[in-house]
């Protein structure tokens, strides 16, 4: 009995110590630990304890309290970026077309202003530049700022040399146009690299928008799903302040519901995940971006050309396993690569437990599978469904979004998330998700 009590006390102490580290990361970068899992946090702590030659967690904790550099190092250890060029190709196709419209409004009064936050190791902002150049824009007609909280990933972005993992899919013509092969690495052309200004910054920094002109286009994708709801809303408000009237904001597939519920309106272009401010003025203007009247919404004036800038084959499944974390960088730089989906047998066992009413056991099985095999769309869907069944709609919604992050056309996750949004009064968001689900059904039947 005594040994049992000692074990319980020890477990409680470990839990309390872990909570301290989790709260520190929450304050520093807004991280919701559940979005990455405690295993990631614990591994980062062990890594830094070893690197600093600390005797134990308590000694390392004390060092964290007096060293801003070590706090930053811990953030770096949590942030494992994973991204690639032209992720969500439809969004870059649309960007090039929107940019032409925007430039015609400005009548050469100034270059387009574009921001990528978080930018991780640079694949997104450099894709923006290549898409605009391929779309016929002259280099002097736009400029791109790329922000991230991680100095380490910014250093990689600054070198602009990438391995094969940064190039995915079948449409790699841009690699031939803009990269030179050096051994087994690809170096980006200086004409693209020089168009991007790299800076260390945090989207949650209250002063971020005060020192900048609003942007015509804001890219912030697959970031907010790693925050709790209050932090999500805080970050979204900061992003809105960065967006110029009539501009457009590019987000990730799992974040569309959050945007539509909080003052943003989708442009309605499939698989582009692009929004504008719902109350954007319809009055055209060529004044500077500080003129809050702004031009009319882009969606109302968009003329789609016969051919997009890039037209990769449409697929109902990702061509490669999607990462469990997009760039958490910025607020975290973030991303760790997802392992392949859980096996059919393992998910079938979870389904059998759920169907027999053994919800608690099914959730334990999900936790065990996540620990051993890592994130997958199918597993996150079952997490969502089990929480949905138990009446925990907030948690269910977050898990469905994570499933859609890994697999944007996961039909079941789309359908269940649509029902949740509908129950909360978000009819427009629910309709968009059902439309995506119906496209997936039609495509799968071809």
Automatic annotation (TrEMBL):
Coiled coil stretches, renumbered: none
Annotated Polar residues bias: 326-340
Domain CheR-type methyltransferase: residue ranges: 19-256
CDD domains for the chain: AdoMet_MTases
Keyword terms of this UniProt record: Methyltransferase, S-adenosyl-L-methionine, TPR repeat, Transferase
Keyword Transferase assigned: yes
Pfam family, one: CheR
GO terms (BP aspect): methylation
UniProt cross-references to SUPFAM superfamilies, sorted A to Z: S-adenosyl-L-methionine-dependent methyltransferases (SSF53335), TPR-like (SSF48452)
Cited InterPro entries: Bact_Chemotaxis_MeTrfase, CheR_C, CheR_MeTrfase, SAM-dependent_MTases_sf, TPR-like_helical_dom_sf, TPR_rpt
TPR repeats: 377-410
Keyword Methyltransferase: yes
GO MF term set: S-adenosylmethionine-dependent methyltransferase activity
Region described as Disordered: spans on this chain: 310-340
PANTHER family from the UniProt entry: CHEMOTAXIS PROTEIN METHYLTRANSFERASE (PTHR24422)
Name by which UniProt lists this protein: Chemotaxis protein methyltransferase WspC
